[in-house]
Specification:
657 residues; alpha/beta; Na+/H+ antiporter like fold; Alpha-Beta Plaits
Length: 657
């Protein structure tokens, strides 16, 4: 039998091969780790024996996973999505656990085992679903926001479940006292960390960062993560809770993204080891013998979670099509189910055959998740009659926007790049129609006079409604290659002669996009190099100074024109997002105190805010003077940083204080 070092070496060798294979097949790596564990474990080839050292090492994978979840735990973000997260998310988790607990009791399970199974099956895969949403450009769609909100609550719900499950293993007479004591400890620790920890953490990280040592910074991250995990365990709680609190502390500092990048290699490697140890619990022969039970549990999991999510989404006001899509996306299991299941097995809260069936059902459901997502649109269109009406209304809005346009440019995606391009086209007098899937951004930009409409550019019928047969060009302004390929495919089918310009994040995507039919591919890395080269040539005195000066003049005009952008949820986490200037449209209602006054009275520059434009009766005036008098119904477009915009909007609508 292998010792700990041999175990880890063999694990790494097998994981490299299997994970590479699974990535090439576009399958989640977690399934590869589970397969490695299942094949090498005591129930199959018996090449690896889980030792105490390997098990403790694997526990750190869960610690770093919970730390990463804590990093994503943004209080402002939770507040902005509170209705979905603490409404729909809470209902989904509680209803799923309750339903499984009741069914388990009816089938003869003990209530503790039934409850533990409910917590395991209630989870969905954050890693798989968030990637699918991003690849399909559906993060800002209605069902996309519901899916992300529920996943966020599930991530949070793991923390109390990890505290609750050990308490359930105690004798019945001690249960209430144990639960109350665990809850009290968790609340006290949470309050101490949140009340005193935020300021201390910011000061400490600033002190460490000033030393400008990558090694010291990394050591500090490990110290904070493992130190709080140790402290949490010392007071009788779980390692995972301490790691989660450490992530929460750092999430509110400016070092969050750097920490996330530094910790990712540790998290992924150790989490892979954790999933291998879970895979070693799989007894393939027992699963084959109980295959009807496994398939029955899989079917019950998919059907029950779909029904719960669909009903909850409808109860929170979603349209039938949106509710059905959300249910289909969330019906499969997730990686947190394995985290809970490993703790359940360690505490012996569940019979071994049921645990085997649960692991197998979770694996099969995660394999089925991408297929279910792929079929979701067809299923919704097949079974939800109102979806055809909603789709036709969406297309009607797109068609109405493009009805009077000729030789226009269709802009697919109205993020930062799309907006900058639209302003440039306006200056040249070229018409455009922009398509975007962020309803909030569309509403705000349209109020400011931009020709943007809600619509999915990756759909053939949307491009047709946008007037692709009359357009002079089509531009894909987002950098997601797979979605861009779908747009190019539909454009080629509808208008083979239409020039398509595509944005690419790097040169690796150039060949693929060009072969698909793009007339021009603009790789961001190349454009950055061209800018660097032009400055370098000017500095070394290359005799093209007049051309360089002209280019500089053009650049300075464009940069002035393109300052700021209408912020959307897809911009969260992008480079420069935190400190970049933004635009905000403020509509002046009749009777407001601001009506009849000039812009100069409000001294908005005190907050670092300027007025980019004023739109009046459908006409937009750029860079208005301080003497511009405001009328009822005006849309004032403000430019500034987020904090300043809030204050400026209050002063503008509330009058001069």
């Amino acid at each position: 039998m292998l010792d700990t070092l041999e175990f880890v070496v063999l694990l790494l060798a097998a994981a490299v091969v299997v994970v590479a294979l699974f990535r090439s097949l576009d399958l989640p790596p977690v399934l590869g780790y589970l397969l490695v564990g299942a094949l090498g474990g005591p129930h199959a080839l018996n090449l690896m024996q889980e030792s105490a050292g390997a098990r403790h090492l694997a526990e750190f994978g869960v610690v770093f996973l919970m730390f990463s979840i804590g990093l994503e735990f943004s209080l402002p973000r939770l507040f902005a999505m509170k209705r979905i997260v603490f409404g729909l998310g809470l209902v989904q988790v509680m209803a799923s656990i309750t339903l499984v607990t009741v069914l388990g009791r009816l089938l003869g399970l003990g209530w503790i085992a039934a409850f533990a199974l409910g917590g395991t099956l209630a989870m969905s895969s954050t890693a798989i679903l968030s990637k699918l949403l991003a690849d399909r450009l559906e993060l800002d769609s209605r069902h996309g926001r519901e899916v992300i909100g529920v996943l966020l609550f599930q991530d949070i719900a793991v923390v109390p479940l990890l505290i609750l499950l050990p308490a359930l293993s105690r004798p019945a007479e001690e249960l209430m006292f144990t639960l109350a004591l665990a809850a009290l400890k968790a609340v006290v620790l949470l309050l101490l960390v949140l009340v005193f920890g935020q300021r201390l953490m910011r000061w400490w990280f600033t002190l460490v960062a000033r030393r400008r040592s990558t090694e010291l910074f990394m050591l500090n991250v490990l110290l904070i993560t493992l130190g709080l995990a140790w402290l949490s365990e010392r007071v009788g709680l779980s390692l995972a809770l301490g790691a989660f609190l450490a992530g929460m502390l750092i999430s509110e500092t400016e070092y969050r993204y750097q920490v996330e990048e530094d910790i990712k290699p540790f998290r992924d490697v150790l989490l892979g080891l954790f999933f291998v140890t879970v895979g070693m619990l799989l007894d393939v022969m027992e699963i084959v013998r109980n295959l009807p039970a496994v398939l029955g549990l899989l079917g019950a999991l998919l059907a029950a979670k779909f029904a719960v999510v669909f009903a909850a989404s409808r109860a929170f006001g979603a349209a039938p099509g949106t509710a059905m899509r959300t249910g289909l996306w969330l019906c499969a299991g997730g990686e947190f189910g394995f985290v809970l299941l490993s703790q359940i097995l360690g505490l012996e809260l569940m019979p071994h055959p049921l645990a085997q069936a649960a692991v197998a059902a979770l694996v099969l459901s995660m394999l089925a998740a991408p297929l279910i997502v792929q079929l979701s649109d067809r299923l919704v269109m097949r079974f939800v009659a109102s979806e055809w009406l909603l789709r036709s209304m969406e297309l009607t809005r797109v068609a109405a926007q493009s009805l009077n346009t000729q030789k226009h440019i269709i802009i697919c995606g109205y993020g930062r790049s799309g907006q900058y391009m639209a302003r440039f086209l306006e200056q040249e007098g070229v018409g455009y129609v922009a398509l975007d899937l962020d309803p909030e951004r569309v509403r705000e930009a349209a109020a400011a006079g931009d020709t943007v409409v809600y619509g999915d550019a990756a759909r053939r019928e949307t491009l047709a409604a946008a007037g692709i047969m009359r357009a002079s060009a089509l531009v894909v302004s987002f950098a997601e290659a797979e979605a861009a390929l779908r747009v190019i495919h539909h454009a080629q089918a509808l208008r083979p002669d239409l020039p398509v310009v595509v944005r690419a994040s790097d040169e690796a995507e150039m060949e693929k996009l060009a072969q698909a039919g793009a007339a021009e591919v603009v790789p961001e890395a190349f454009e950055g190099s061209i800018m660097l080269a032009s400055h370098a040539l000017a500095l070394i005195g290359v005799p093209l100074n007049r051309v360089v000066r002209r280019i500089r003049d053009i650049r300075s005009q464009r940069y002035a024109l393109m300052r700021g952008f209408f912020h959307g949820s897809s911009d969260v986490g992008e480079a420069g997002e935190a400190g970049g200037a933004r635009l905000r449209s403020v509509t002046v209602p009749p009777g407001a105190a601001v009506v009849g006054r000039v812009l100069g009275e409000f001294a908005l520059d005190e907050f670092g805010v300027s007025v980019s434009a004023v739109r009046r009766r459908g006409i937009r005036g750029l860079s208005p003077s301080a003497e511009t008098r405001i009328e009822a119904g005006d849309v004032v477009v403000l430019l500034g940083l987020p904090g300043g915009l809030e204050t400026a909007e209050q002063r503008l609508l509330g009058g001069v204080s």
